[in-house]
Amino acid sequence: MSEINTIKTTGQPGLDVTQKINAKTNTSTDKTLSTQSNESTVDTLSLTNTATQLQSIQESLADAAPTVDADRVSSLKAAIAEGSYNVEPAELANNMINFEQQLG
After folding, report:
1. Interatomic CA distance for residues 36 and 29, integer angstroms
2. DSSP alpha helices (H): ranges in 14-88?
3. 16, 6 contact by CB (below 8 A)
4. What pLDDT, on a 0 to 100 scale, did the predictor assign at position 4?
5. pLDDT at res. 46
6. Tens-digit pLDDT profile for the chain (104 aa)?
7. CA–CA distances in Å: residue 1 to residues 5, 24, 26, 36
8. What is the rounded CA–CA span in Å between residue 20 and residue 24?
9. How far is CA 64 from CA 31, 39, 53, 104, in A?
10. What is the pLDDT of residue 88?
11. Are 85 and 75 in contact (CB under 8 A)?
12. Are the C-beta atoms of residues 18 and 12 closer than 8 Å to each other?
């Protein structure tokens, strides 16, 4: 059917080889695949212990995450747009220092 020429894997020791690969259709494989596709299959999913723990952590973080106060956000946006929002440089600097100290 199709042909892939000169596949190079450079920069990897032991793999600096040029290959020529021909892709051909195998009729016996095609028959097997078509037979398998007619059978009904059951999909299953199993999670590792680590995946289960990650899912549990994600759920607990979602529950503990602070909610956004939409009214406060809109009022701050309006104050900024009007030019009436006042930033106290000393208070901002102290808050930034406190935040950095909490991060460790």
Report:
1. 11
2. 27-38, 49-64, 70-82
3. no
4. 56
5. 81
6. 455 555 555 555 555 445 555 555 555 555 555 555 556 788 888 878 888 899 889 888 887 777 788 899 999 999 999 999 999 999 999 999 999 999 87
7. 13, 6, 11, 23
8. 13
9. 54, 46, 17, 22
10. 94
11. no
12. no
Q: Give me the residue label for tokens 């450079």.
A: 10
**Both tokens assigned to 2:** 């199709």
b/e map 18-53, b = 16+ CB within 10 Å? eeeeeeeeeeeeeeeeeeeeeeeeeeeeeeeeeeee
**Single-letter amino acid, residue 51:** A
Cα angle at 93 between 88 and 99, to 5 degrees?
125
